[in-house]
Structure formats: C-alpha cells, structure tokens
Design brief:
This protein has 5 helices and 7 strands. The chain is an alpha+beta fold.
Amino acid sequence: MNSAAKLKRLIKSVFRSQNLAVLATHHKGQPYTSLVAFAASADLKSLLFATTRTTRKYANIRADSRVALLVDTRENRDTDFHNAVAVTATGRAAEVRGAAKVRLQKVYISRHPCLEEFLKSLTCALLRVKVERYHVVNRFQNVMELRVR
C-alpha cells in the first residue's frame, strides 16, 4: 500500500472515531472557531456540517468561503503528545442545494441521526467543504499532507 493510501486510511480512521470538528472561519481577518458535527464523504473530497443561517459561521462563510476543519483524537492525557492524531482539512465551504442536498443529507443523517430534525428545519443549512488538502499530525510533530483536488 502506498503512502497516500495509508494516509487516507488514517484520516478515515480518525473521522470514524470522532463526531465533532472545530470549524475555523474569519471575519475581516479575525479568526473565529466553532464546534460542528461533521460527516465525510467516502472519497474524502467533501466534509459536511449543518448550521442555522443566522449564525456567525454562516455569515463568515458567505463573505469568504475559505475554511479549515480540525478533527483530532486527543483525550486530555499526557499520552496525547505521542498518541493523538490531528487532521486539518482546508478548502471552500458552500451551502448545498438542489438534488445534491437530498443525497448529502442522507450521508449526514446516517452519521448523526439525532440531528435529522435540526437538519430538515427551514432555518438550517447543510454546508459542504470541498476539501483541497489534508494536513495530518501524529506523534506530536510528524506532519503529512494529502492533496485532494
């Protein structure tokens, strides 16, 4: 198995183990982070999350679609320095509409069935991040990069 395939397998493993990601956006250069429940497409090209259209993160994304999402396996223990894995995805986010929305809602709900009612509310937007690259850090300072697009 080549190194890209191994890295994809590691990313998928981290994503399977976690329900939440830290979303980073910005407003006029001021960083802003939020916790979001996320789901990944099988090919890792897309990450999904939901939010209401009245949130700061939604407004920030409408103004500038560039985002980063951090997913990690830390447990707040000393062993995290050697065992935790952090995956940062960078790309552009946009609200999903039309036929793609119906298809991607199923992906999101299969990962987070408890959020189905929230996702289907009229005020909620399903957002897709088209991932450009992943940065993976393990063993505290071992950094790897996977370009997606």
